[in-house]
């Protein structure tokens, strides 16, 4: 168990994904200062908001139980009391309890989750089928074919950003107990979205705004 600063957001961060943030609330500026000045590895916990919103004290009323640690890789002041911060998702965690660290920002007790694979043969087969489904989905949309990750773990996490899934489904992928389960879920979701796009001609919007304001 570890204690980490907590940043509730209206999005789902997964390991390996980039998270750009525009920070202006005093509590998060304090958090950024503490992270950069007091730790060798500046990491904070990102957890999706189940009920509530991002801005303002006590605005997030209910949080999902599984989140992702984010490591700060770049931070810069842009004037007017605003900072642009780029971080990268590293490891998943379970939100055990809120903690009182005497700071303006939230802190929580978390348990870092082990990354389990599942059955290796199933993982390899599902990864192949998921790549094929993603290619068919891109073809249906008439979109450029991205380069999907070769690694099955990375591929399982890439689904949420590659298809127009809502927050609940991206959270479901994040919370999956192992790679096999996540690939299976992702395959079902991509096939559903591809069928909808083929039938209705619907092109989903990008899942997230490129900069998340706090």
TrEMBL record:
Entry superkingdom: Bacteria
Signal peptide annotation: none
Domain Lon N-terminal span(s) in chain numbering: 1-194
SUPFAM superfamilies, alphabetized: PUA domain-like
InterPro entries per the UniProt record, alphabetical: Lon_prtase_N, Lon_prtase_N_sf, PUA-like_sf
Record protein name field: LON peptidase substrate-binding domain-containing protein
UniProt organism field: Pedococcus sp. KACC 23699
Taxonomic path: Bacteria, Bacillati, Actinomycetota, Actinomycetes, Micrococcales
């Amino acid at each position: 168990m570890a204690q980490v600063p907590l940043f509730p957001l209206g999005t789902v961060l997964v390991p390996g994904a980039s998270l750009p943030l525009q920070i202006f609330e005093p509590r998060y500026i304090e958090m950024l200062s503490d992270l950069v000045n007091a730790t060798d590895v500046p990491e904070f916990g990102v957890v999706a908001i189940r009920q509530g919103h991002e801005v303002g004290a006590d605005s997030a009323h209910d949080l999902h139980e599984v989140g992702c640690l984010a490591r700060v890789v770049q931070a810069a002041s842009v004037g007017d009391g605003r900072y642009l911060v780029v971080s990268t998702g590293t490891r998943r965690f379970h939100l055990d309890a809120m903690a009182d660290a005497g700071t303006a920002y939230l802190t929580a007790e978390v348990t870092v989750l082990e990354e389990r694979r599942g059955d290796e043969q199933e993982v390899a087969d599902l990864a192949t089928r998921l790549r094929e489904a993603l290619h068919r989905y891109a073809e249906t949309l008439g979109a450029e074919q991205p380069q999907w990750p070769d690694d099955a773990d990375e591929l399982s996490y890439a689904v949420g950003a590659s298809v127009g899934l809502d927050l609940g489904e991206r959270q479901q992928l994040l919370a999956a107990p192992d790679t096999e389960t996540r690939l299976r879920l992702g395959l079902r979701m991509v096939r559903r979205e591809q069928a909808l796009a083929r039938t209705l001609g619907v092109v989903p919007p990008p899942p997230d705004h490129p900069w998340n304001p706090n």
